[in-house]
């Protein structure tokens, strides 16, 4: 089936996220705008306007009531999903790189970049306490002095956050004490993306070292490795099949010197158990920055350096994808 092309951004896409039901798709880019779309037909519902810098991250709580965005304008903002009204503004000292609601939707976390003399912090706010938001005073702020956080997701039951770092390390940070519960270092270069499986038991990482790896969420045991020949910008786990989809390509600054064929701008499908690639989907005119599976597993979306979001529908039991020898 022909993909649905979403044209609502002027610059490259930084993250895309489905809500729990999968009827809405949120996209953010380097152009200050956060968009929300109907995933079934690609119609744009509206935008969340307010940021003045590139928006790096977006998340939606489990009942699609609130939306959280983090930006390079040194702020993290909470929005009413339905009306687009800004509910809270949390100012930081440096750019907000990752953000997320825990499963209850009551606690938010976000991490800030190490820049302009400020170190990287992982901040936790409880939305049930309005005073925290008004005073911009997190109940827990964890300094990460060694290496900045480049991607993060909540673990199961909201007990900890799994964070990927610039040096390839993965850490579990307790949401209660802030201490590091577990560490793993399987990657040799920066982790670009971390995404959870639908039941939160596993996470998949995407790294600049040309690999994507599957880990157990609780123990951080390394389970599988998926190898490619280019940096991997994003990876997602299918909610219904033993499949993972990966997006990447070469570094954005090298793109202008190569054709789309050499640049490897396809989304790649791997079997989660056998670690074998079994399909590729072309489409983007630049590296793919982010991928996400629809919660029903029958479609996936990708956001690229070209500023487009594409929604691809397919039959997960029968792949008719091109795979070159």
From TrEMBL:
<dbReference type="InterPro" id="IPR001680">
    <property type="entry name" value="WD40_rpt"/>
</dbReference>
<dbReference type="GO" id="GO:0001732">
    <property type="term" value="P:formation of cytoplasmic translation initiation complex"/>
</dbReference>
<dbReference type="GO" id="GO:0003723">
    <property type="term" value="F:RNA binding"/>
</dbReference>
<protein>
    <recommendedName>
        <fullName>Eukaryotic translation initiation factor 3 subunit I</fullName>
    </recommendedName>
</protein>
<comment type="function">
    <text>Component of the eukaryotic translation initiation factor 3 (eIF-3) complex, which is required for several steps in the initiation of protein synthesis. The eIF-3 complex associates with the 40S ribosome and facilitates the recruitment of eIF-1, eIF-1A, eIF-2:GTP:methionyl-tRNAi and eIF-5 to form the 43S pre-initiation complex (43S PIC). The eIF-3 complex stimulates mRNA recruitment to the 43S PIC and scanning of the mRNA for AUG recognition.</text>
</comment>
<dbReference type="GO" id="GO:0033290">
    <property type="term" value="C:eukaryotic 48S preinitiation complex"/>
</dbReference>
<dbReference type="InterPro" id="IPR027525">
    <property type="entry name" value="eIF3i"/>
</dbReference>
<feature type="repeat" description="WD">
    <location>
        <begin position="48"/>
        <end position="89"/>
    </location>
</feature>
<comment type="subunit">
    <text>Component of the eukaryotic translation initiation factor 3 (eIF-3) complex, which is composed of 13 subunits: EIF3A, EIF3B, EIF3C, EIF3D, EIF3E, EIF3F, EIF3G, EIF3H, EIF3I, EIF3J, EIF3K, EIF3L and EIF3M.</text>
</comment>
<keyword id="KW-0963">Cytoplasm</keyword>
<comment type="function">
    <text>Component of the eukaryotic translation initiation factor 3 (eIF-3) complex, which is involved in protein synthesis of a specialized repertoire of mRNAs and, together with other initiation factors, stimulates binding of mRNA and methionyl-tRNAi to the 40S ribosome. The eIF-3 complex specifically targets and initiates translation of a subset of mRNAs involved in cell proliferation.</text>
</comment>
<dbReference type="InterPro" id="IPR036322">
    <property type="entry name" value="WD40_repeat_dom_sf"/>
</dbReference>
<keyword id="KW-0396">Initiation factor</keyword>
<keyword id="KW-0677">Repeat</keyword>
<dbReference type="GO" id="GO:0016282">
    <property type="term" value="C:eukaryotic 43S preinitiation complex"/>
</dbReference>
<dbReference type="GO" id="GO:0003743">
    <property type="term" value="F:translation initiation factor activity"/>
</dbReference>
<feature type="repeat" description="WD">
    <location>
        <begin position="281"/>
        <end position="311"/>
    </location>
</feature>
<dbReference type="InterPro" id="IPR015943">
    <property type="entry name" value="WD40/YVTN_repeat-like_dom_sf"/>
</dbReference>
<dbReference type="GO" id="GO:0071541">
    <property type="term" value="C:eukaryotic translation initiation factor 3 complex, eIF3m"/>
</dbReference>
<feature type="repeat" description="WD">
    <location>
        <begin position="6"/>
        <end position="47"/>
    </location>
</feature>
<comment type="similarity">
    <text>Belongs to the eIF-3 subunit I family.</text>
</comment>
<keyword id="KW-0648">Protein biosynthesis</keyword>
<comment type="similarity">
    <text>Belongs to the WD repeat STRAP family.</text>
</comment>
<dbReference type="InterPro" id="IPR019775">
    <property type="entry name" value="WD40_repeat_CS"/>
</dbReference>
<dbReference type="Pfam" id="PF24805">
    <property type="entry name" value="EIF3I"/>
</dbReference>
<keyword id="KW-0853">WD repeat</keyword>
């Amino acid at each position: 089936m022909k993909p649905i092309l979403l044209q609502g951004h002027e610059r490259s896409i930084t993250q895309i996220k489905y809500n729990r039901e999968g009827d809405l798709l949120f996209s953010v880019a380097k152009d200050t705008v956060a968009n929300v779309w109907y995933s079934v037909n690609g119609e744009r519902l509206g935008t969340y306007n307010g940021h003045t810098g590139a928006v790096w991250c977006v998340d939606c709580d489990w009942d699609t009531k609130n939306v959280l965005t983090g930006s390079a304008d040194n702020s993290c903002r909470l929005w009413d999903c339905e009306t687009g009204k800004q509910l809270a503004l949390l100012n930081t000292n440096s750019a907000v790189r990752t953000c997320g609601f825990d499963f209850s939707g009551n606690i938010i976390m976000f991490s800030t970049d190490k820049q302009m003399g400020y170190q990287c912090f992982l901040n936790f706010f409880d939305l049930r306490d309005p005073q925290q938001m008004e005073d911009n005073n997190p109940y827990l702020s964890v300094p990460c002095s060694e290496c900045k956080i480049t991607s993060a997701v909540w673990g199961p039951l909201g007990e900890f956050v799994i964070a990927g770092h610039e040096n390839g390390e993965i850490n579990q940070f307790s949401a209660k004490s802030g201490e590091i519960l577990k560490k793993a270092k399987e990657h040799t270069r920066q982790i670009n993306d971390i995404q959870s499986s639908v039941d939160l038991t596993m996470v998949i990482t995407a790294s600049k070292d040309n690999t994507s790896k599957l880990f157990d969420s609780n123990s951080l045991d390394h389970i599988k490795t998926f190898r490619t020949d280019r940096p991997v910008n994003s990876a997602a786990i299918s909610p219904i099949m033993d499949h993972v989809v990966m997006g990447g390509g070469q570094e954005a600054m090298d793109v202008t010197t190569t054709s789309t064929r050499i640049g490897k701008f396809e989304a790649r499908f791997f079997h989660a158990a056998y670690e074998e690639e079994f399909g590729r989907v072309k489409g983007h005119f630049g590296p793919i920055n982010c991928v996400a599976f629809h919660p029903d597993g029958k479609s996936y979306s990708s956001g690229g350096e070209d500023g487009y979001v594409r929604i691809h529908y397919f039959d997960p039991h029968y792949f008719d994808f091109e795979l070159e020898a």
